[in-house]
Design a protein that fits this description.
alpha/beta, Purple Acid Phosphatase, chain A, domain 2, 7-stranded mixed beta sheet, 6-stranded mixed beta sheet, 8 helices, 13 strands
Amino acid sequence: MNRPDSAAGETAVSPGKISDFRGNGLDASLARRKELEQRHADTKVFGGGKTFFHPENSLLSASLIRNALRMTGMLERGRRNAMDIGIRENPVTLARLPNSFDGFTVLHISDLHLDSRPDFALRLAEVVAPLEYDLCVLTGDYRFHTHGDPRPALRGLSILRQVLSGTTYAVLGNHDSSDMIPDMIAMGYHLLYNTAVPVERPGATVYIVGVDDPHFFQTDDLEMALNSVPEGQLRVLLAHSPEIYQLAEAADVDLLLCGHTHGGQIALPGGRALYANARCPGRIISGNWQYGSLRGYTSVGAGSSVLDVRFNCRPEVTLHRLCSPC
């Protein structure tokens, strides 16, 4: 069932669409990303980005993991785990949150990798459809591979959009192509490419800020994104990777919502990640964390990368309930 692309009730949300990149100050940063994509930089296994090794670009890595799991009889179990998407509820208290936003709920979906298998988009839509929230945000990685035809992932995004209520903001990840932007906008996704939009309730405004991928392409520009945000206003930053955490804290961001790490995807019992593919402290690769004045949440992701399996790291979508301190 199609849901309306406008938030119901008392909240007014700025459209935030990027329907035309020309003349709006985004030309240079988008051109840089397109240049990197055209050079096929996204297929590098070694070098580039903030980490040296990029397993998502290695066919050998996927083959080795698949064969090891098949030999131990764990492959199908891992694939079943990857379809067992959980719903995590996360209350977060923010000192600058206006009282009128107390209880405001944000649905956060990250690392969807919608074309990982033919039935995954339908499964994700099934999990998300009954949820109630005020706003939805997506923090990147919509396709499984980092190159190739984006249309299967776009079909998955279309299936998902039909069950998302109200306004949905999105940023791009390192798996995504900038060529996906026009189709996503046509579906009703509001792309935040190094920009910010206000969300309003009577007598109060908070800002949703979005930057491009800070991990591989490193085309994020937080300074540009914050240009239109008045001092003292609450800022919720959407970024694909937590690797922007130091810049975000220095820029007086209140809450960073991100993903990319998959929480390791294949973890030891107890959830300790074997590899997170991010240059950041281990304590911020999943779940709630704090760095100075910055609150953060790193989603372990809804989908899977390299191989469609998970162990000791359940995929998730997250409902963040914002709470004022009084």
